[in-house]
Amino acid sequence: MKTKTDVHVNKIPLFSSKGKKLNSMELNKDVFNGKSNNALLYQLLRMYNANKRKGTASTKTRGEVRGSGKKPWRQKGTGRARVGSKRNPVWRGGGIAFGPHPRDFRYSVPKKMKRKAFISSLNAKLKAGKVVAIEDLVLENPKTKNVSGLLKSLNITAKVLLLVQKIDKNLLLASRNVEKLTLKKIAEATALDVLSNDRVIMTKPVAESLERS
Questions:
Q1: Per the confidence metrics, is the pTM higher than 0.85?
Q2: What is the SS3 assignment for 38?
């Protein structure tokens, strides 16, 4: 049985760049069908988070710590445990036996997987009714109130991702001080960007480019 959400999942409200409601925008059903691949999203989120790791944790082995390698006492006859060096991991101040060392956690997946995961993340937001479209956003001046006023008109107070075709100087300056706003070019946006924000705003050209690609 189809729910109301399923029937209209490929339709999103369309607003002007000032936040005035125009009509609804119908998206390509072959691309935006409300279905998300959770297994694929998990793989991509794991990759993005791994790629953010610095991998700088480091410990010294017994060969790197400071101290003499001389045998502290003779092997037998003292009544104490035998030991070859005070740098051994058992002693305080000795080396670490299996401690971490600097490493690169980065890895990648095919571009097609990234693309499918991005569309899948958008579909998850579409199904939840958290995606809106606006006409192409071109600002005449770099004033913060232009962007904050748009969000206020759309009644958006949560974390929001704004997807545009290109970022000019005015848009960059006007949006950088807006709280809870992430501005991204569609060519650089990822599934992590979509899922890290509660709402998604995309310009009409962006939506049309996603349908063609």
A1: no
A2: helix
